[in-house]
Each structure stands twice: as structure tokens, then as C-alpha cells.
Amino acid sequence: MLGEKLKELREAKGLVQRQVAADLQVDTAYISKMEHNEKPVSRKHLKKLAKLYSVTENELLPIWLADKVLQLVENEKYSIQALEMVLNNVKEK
Amino acid sequence: MLGEKLKELREAKGLVQRQVAADLQVDTAYISKMEHNEKPVSRKHLKKLAKLYSVTENELLPIWLADKVLQLVENEKYSIQALEMVLNNVKEK
DNA sequence: TCTATATTTGTCCTTTTTAGGACAAGACCA
DNA sequence: TGGTCTTGTCCTAAAAAGGACAAATATAGA
């Protein structure tokens, strides 16, 4: 989810991975992996990416979090029940 | 969530932590911490506990997973949005 | 009250897992 | 070709799991 979004944003900005990599001070392979959900995106990097792509961090954060949750529950038999329980729990608070 | 449930089940069975600890081959402090959500419950342990308490693992698994999700999203600003995204994602599949 | 048993809490340690990232090499265009 | 992107492997460092132990607290019964 997040990876695809990051790729879209980068392309919308007309940037090439090398430029993003330079900004984050990592190599291009790392960016590629982020965009393919093969490496987790740290909050630090997320913030930089938001700035670079001219979106607010708040636009990215829900997707970022959803990604983490998804990874946790995928392949789990009771994911739906679990998610609904958590949703209730979180909503009532 | 899970901790409370485990405690209830244990008491319903009239067991004392020492007995459960013996069954899982850990010490009582460990059981106590599980019941207070201070230590994660491994799947291996969960299975043993289900058997010991005469419930099906399926009764425990959703709670077990919900606990993990909850821990991931609590204190997160966009937990609700994220959970809803994941729920949609998982449901459609 | 005294005491034994049950539980909780804090600290510590070791092992396993995950994050974060580099590098090299291959693939894909154009 | 040259630039872009992808993929695989490797490494180190940080974090989490799993668990022991000791000490402190509750708690129920004699």
C-alpha cells in the first residue's frame, strides 16, 4: 500500500529514485525496496519523504500504519474478528 | 485483553498459577505477566493454555491477535483510519 | 495475629528477530 | 550504450522474546 503511494508521489513530482536516495542519504536500492514494500519505512524517512513530495505527513501516516497492521494480520485466520475487536476498543476510548 | 481472559479461564478451572506454570514449564512470575499483558503469549503457549483450560484454540486466537494489533496501534493518531483501511483490504480478498 | 501459599513486580540475561543499510549484479528501457 | 530500477546477499546494530531469579505484597486460614 504505502510503497505504491510513494512511487506515485515520486513520479508525480518527476523525481527519479537517485534524487530521493540522495535526499534521504541512502542508496537507490533502498528506495526501490521501500516502493516494493520490501523494507519498512521508518518514521524519520516518512517525514522526509512527505516534505520532498509536498504532502503532509498526515496524509501518509494512516497508510503507513495500515501497512504495519496489514503485515501483522495477513495470513491470519481471524484477522477480521481481531480487527473489529480492536476497532471497537479504540473507538470507545 | 488476552491476559484477563486467561485469568478468568484459569480461575474457572480452579487452577493456581503454579499449576499452569508447571504445565508450561515456566515459573509463576511468567504466568503472572502473561495475565497482566506484560509478556507476549507465544502461539505454543497459547495452544497449551487452550488445552489446559478446555477451550478451543479458535476461541483464543482472535483475542490473541487483537492484542497484538492493539499494541501496534495504540497511541497512534490515525489508528481508526488505519484499521478501517486494513479491514476493507482484508475483507475484499 | 502469624504464617504459608499465591501472586506480583523488578531486574537481569541470553537468544532470536527485525531494522537499516551497503554492495554487486542483473534487467529494463530508450 | 548509459541511466534507471530491481533483486539478492550480506552485515551490524538495535530491539523484542523468552525466561530465570529474588524480593516484595496480598491473602486466607489456624
Could you give a quick summary of the protein structure above?
The structure is a homodimer of 93-residue chains. With 93 residues, chain A is mainly α.
Structural account:
The structure is a homodimer of 93-residue chains. Chain A is mainly α and 93 residues long. The first copy, chain A, has six helices and no strands. In chain A, helix 4 packs across helix 5. Chain A binds a DNA duplex (30 and 30 nucleotides) through helix 3.
Sheet of most strands of chain A? none
Return the structural class of chain A: mainly alpha
**Largest interface, C-beta closer than 8 angstroms, per-chain residues:** A-B, 28 and 28 residues
| CATH top-level class of chain A | Mainly Alpha
CATH homology group of chain A:
lambda repressor-like DNA-binding domains
Order of helices and strands of chain A: HHHHHH
What multimeric state do the chains show?
homodimer
Shape of chain A: elongated
Unreliably modeled segments of chain A? none
The number of distinct β-strands of chain A equals: 0
What is the mean pLDDT of chain A? 97
Number of domains of chain A: 1
Tally of separate helices of chain A: 6
Measured by DSSP, the beta-strand proportion of chain A falls in under 5%
